[in-house]
């Protein structure tokens, strides 16, 4: 909702297509506050107010312009759906104008300004460059709100993870921030799974972690696992998965040993998207306070062990890191 664009998606496209141009042919923001009376009756990008809509759409324009391969953006659509929705029932505040042809001024003014700035942003666009020491921001992260909106995402985004097998593409990314209480990590990723491929699984507690979409973390020499456990039967596109944050490398969900004082919040999303934020207190790493440097290794593994990617380096924790800095990218 804040207009952030997850870079891993375009990193993957760059690798798979060798940098071919990309045209974003349909994108939008809708708001519950609108003049047509649209109900926004599904799961598509919706915010509360026209002010949030304008702010998010303008930010997304500039974030998309910063991707080197993107050559254009097409807004969907000119006018709102009619009151009560179109013939198939879809009913959204998609329009730059309402059904009477009146512009949503906050949105059109924000997009006009963003469009004027987009060419210069695009001219400076470069793919991310990986380093070994990554300065991460001191930030006020809110757990439990189901959003990464308050994260200083450009500053906290870690470098692109590298696929282990040649020809594979990246399928997710990780963010890091910290405060006096502990370390915050977040991940955005995507991957499809197929229930029958898991074999005979008896309930969620018997789920084999080795088949899960997961992040294996090593922080300061200690091991943790963030695993996603689906329900035994997939009944919808956004199944109610559980995010398990465990000490060590458990074999089964039932063997997960919780990390004292830690927390993992899975947002829930249309499968195949996965978004989660987690908190690890410094005590879980055997520390009394925030260190200045923290070695980190991240291994991300997709469902059914189909793909693996890794990243290793050192987090540099410094209160002087500006939240708007470019961080690792």
Q: Helical amount among residues, as a percent range?
A: 10-25%
Q: What is the 3D form?
A: globular
Strand content: 25-35%
Count of extended strands: 16
Derived from helix and strand composition plus strand pairing, the structural class reads alpha+beta
Ranges with pLDDT <50 over ≥5 residues? 324-329
Question: What oligomeric state do these chains adopt?
Answer: single chain
Annotation field: number of helices: 4
The CA-CA distance between the termini, in Å, is 22 Å
The H/E string reads HEEEHEHEHEEEEEEEEEEE
Mean pLDDT: 89
Radius of gyration: 21 Å
Sheet bearing the most strands, described? 8 strands, mixed
Task: Give an overview of the whole structure.
This protein has 329 residues and is α+β, with helices and mostly antiparallel strands. The protein is 15% helix and 28% strand. It has helices spanning 7-17, 50-65, 105-123, 153-156; strands at 22-27, 30-31, 46-47, 70-75, 133-136, 162-163, 172-178, 182-190, 213-219, 222-229, 242-247, 257-258, 263-266, 273-281, 293-301, 308-317. The strands form 4 sheets. Strands 5, 6, 9, 10, 11, 12, 15 and 16 form an 8-stranded mixed sheet that branches. Strand 9 (213-219) and strand 10 form a beta hairpin. The longest helix is centred in the middle third of the chain and has 19 residues, at 105-123. It starts with 6 loop residues before the first helix and ends in a 12-residue tail after the last strand. The model is unreliable at 324-329 (pLDDT under 50).
């Amino acid at each position: 909702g804040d207009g952030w664009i997850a870079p891993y998606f375009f990193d993957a496209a760059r690798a798979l297509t060798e940098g071919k141009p990309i045209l974003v042919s349909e994108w939008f923001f809708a708001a519950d506050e609108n003049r047509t009376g649209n109900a926004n009756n599904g799961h598509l990008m919706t915010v509360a107010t026209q002010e949030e809509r304008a702010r998010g759409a303008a930010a997304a324009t500039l974030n998309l312009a910063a991707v080197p391969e993107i050559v254009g953006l097409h807004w969907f659509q000119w006018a709102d759906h009619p009151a009560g929705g179109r013939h198939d029932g879809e009913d959204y505040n998609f329009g730059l104008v309402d059904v009477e042809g009146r512009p949503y001024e906050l949105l059109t003014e924000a997009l006009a300004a963003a469009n004027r700035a987009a060419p210069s942003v695009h001219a400076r666009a470069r793919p991310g460059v990986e380093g070994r020491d990554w300065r991460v921001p001191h930030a006020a992260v809110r757990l439990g709100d189901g959003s990464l909106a308050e994260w200083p995402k450009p500053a906290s985004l870690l470098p692109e993870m590298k696929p282990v097998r040649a020809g594979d593409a990246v399928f997710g990314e990780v963010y890091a921030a910290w405060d006096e209480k502990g370390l915050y990590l977040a991940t955005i990723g995507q991957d499809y799974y197929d229930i029958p491929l898991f074999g005979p699984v008896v309930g969620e507690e018997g789920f084999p972690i080795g088949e899960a979409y997961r992040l294996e973390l090593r922080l300061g020499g200690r091991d943790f696992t963030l695993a996603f456990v689906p329900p035994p039967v997939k009944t919808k596109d956004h199944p109610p998965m559980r995010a398990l944050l465990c000490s060590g490398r458990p074999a089964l969900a039932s063997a997960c040993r919780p990390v004292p004082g830690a927390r993992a919040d899975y947002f829930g999303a249309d499968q195949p998207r996965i978004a989660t934020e987690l908190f690890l207190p410094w005590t879980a790493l055997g520390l009394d306070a925030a260190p200045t440097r923290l070695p980190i290794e991240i291994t991300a593994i997709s469902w059914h062990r189909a793909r693996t990617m890794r990243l290793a380096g050192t987090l540099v924790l410094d209160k002087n890191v500006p939240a708007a800095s470019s961080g690792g990218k």
